[in-house]
Amino acid sequence: MTLNNFGSVWWMIIWSMEVRERSLSEEDRKDLEIWMSNHLRLPFRLTDEQLDIFLHCCYNDLDLVKKTIPKYFNMRITTPEFFRGRNFDLPGLKHIQHVIKVSILPQKTPKGYSVLMGRLSKTEVSEFFLDDSIKLKLMVIDQFLRDHGPSNGMVFLFDMTGVSFSHLSRISLSSVKKYCQYIQEAMPIRLKAIHVINANSVMTSIMTLLRPFIYKQHLKRIHLHSSDKIKEIYESVPQNILPKDYGGEEASFDTMSRESVERLKKNYEAFETEDKTYDLLATTPEFSKAGNKSSKKSSKKQQEDVQITFKKLELD
Predict the structure, then answer these.
(1) I need a labelling partner for 3 at 20 to 30 A (CA). Which of 19, 167, 206, 227 fits?
(2) What phi, psi does 101 have (nearest 5°)?
């Protein structure tokens, strides 16, 4: 598949979006086309429908769109640990599909938000690999956008059951930083909230790790719920839309997760095409320089963050 066809692969369902607050006006379209030709060095043209996705996630702020699109492609091209090897025949995904469960719930919240849910399936520390877990989660989101287009927003719902202090040894701060940067600056969805249920003392340490990489305005969107206060989430995520093993009316979460993985496997060609395209773009001067510059610029800052974070953990 040629690069010129790449755009239509990733966004194959955008043309029939249920939620489209605004189509591009003629003036906006011309403005963005001029901007893309001058500043966005991609070997394919983004369609109006693709631009609508970015407009939607950016609340129709054209200036923000012009910042988000380059970050989206830069991160996907220069972060192979999340956006390469997205094939279940390879060791990473073949293994991690049995270690974590992740799926987007069939029903939306009353506000029209989609809910991405995740938890450990195997609790043995040696089985957990952060980069592969993030990769699988982001693949589920990508496939959801292909199948359904954007919703009013998305809520993350994570179950901490089985997570121990030993799992912290499996966390790379470099990966945490890249993950936080992507979901805050480049991911083409409106992230409305992150709810963590069955939160335990480990979550305090995890928040210490995350805090240096999360913007203050986004910290307010993170809500922790202990096991005896799980009902607190029902105001945001009604109980009836949860899996039946969480007291809801839907299929079990194991079934949901298994079906999500099967859906990804059926659409392996789209991910394979993206991976090859990102590999090719990574060799171009624009993106290879951007990746090297970003890596050098963040290296010292990451070392400082590591030192600060672990000092805090020692004090805790």
Answers:
(1) 19
(2) -115, 135
Tokens read off for 236: 């945001």
- Return the percent helix, strand and coil in the chain, to nearest 5: 60, 10, 30
Whole-structure pTM over 0.70, yes or no? Answer: yes
Per DSSP, helices labelled H in 58-193 are 62-78, 80-83, 91-96, 130-148, 173-185
| Residues 22, 155: Cα–Cα separation, whole Å | 22
Q: 253-262: buried (b, 16+ CB within 10 Å) or exposed (e) per residue?
A: beebbeebbe
> What's the first-to-final CA gap in the chain, in angstroms?
53
Contact 173, 208 (CB under 8 A): no
CA angle 101, 102, 104 (to 5 degrees): 145
The 10s digit of each residue's pLDDT in 24-68 is 577 877 888 888 888 877 777 777 667 778 888 998 888 899 999
Q: Are 48 and 55 a contacting pair, CB within 8 Å?
A: no
List, in sequence order, every residue forming a beta bridge with 120; answer none if it has no partner.
100
